[in-house]
């Protein structure tokens, strides 16, 4: 069979991704990627440290980034992204910018970005400066995220966190939804779900419809900004950041998108900040959150499919 008329594969558009060694959601990243773009992932070296501020610093060292970006450059991506929220906010705004500069140098002027920088870019895109925050982290790591956002001029109106130090990718969607409902307690412009190892793709449309505001997640903003940097568009049906139809839907009914005097979402009951046990917090690994004890949890040997929302 003569296939010469095909002319060979088309030139490849590639996004290089540097992820922490424990990143488990490669498949979720691909769900935002159009068919004509490839993802090239590499991971930071393993270190025997659980999720914490110490780990965030270790997986974002410039020497580590330099080696990872050099490895990615062997396949000629058009942009390099650092896919870790805590690793990119732990050094503050200046630290995030320094990470981008270090990756650009390692990639011989290749454009570079991080999850935390992509978050700020996404907030500018949707004009959201008061946000509710959901994280799987401990209190200290969640505090560090709030400090980063404050430094960038973003107000956190409410937050909820799990207190996890490992196995974050096993958190079911129902726990993410429960945290979101607790975090959105004031007049927020948007909700941000932090951590690239926390599954979020399928839950974003439901939360936007229920909360009537844009919902951003760490993986979503990372892929959106990466594709934007190379002139491509992310794929995410019914997600306000990436879908023009969704921007005209329920998520557009928030104060920042349709401003009116005193506008905002109704105040919801519950704590403005809570540590959720859900089904994912080992008590020996979690910090106490504002005096709330976290019940023990024993993860299954093999994670099952995400629970239906």
From TrEMBL:
Pfam families: Amdase (PF17645). InterPro entries: Iso_Racemase_Enz_sf (IPR053714), MaiA/AMDase (IPR026286). Residues 274-309 are annotated as: Disordered. Residues 296-309 have a biased composition (Pro residues). It comes from the Bacteria. PANTHER family: BLR3294 PROTEIN (PTHR40267). This is Decarboxylase.
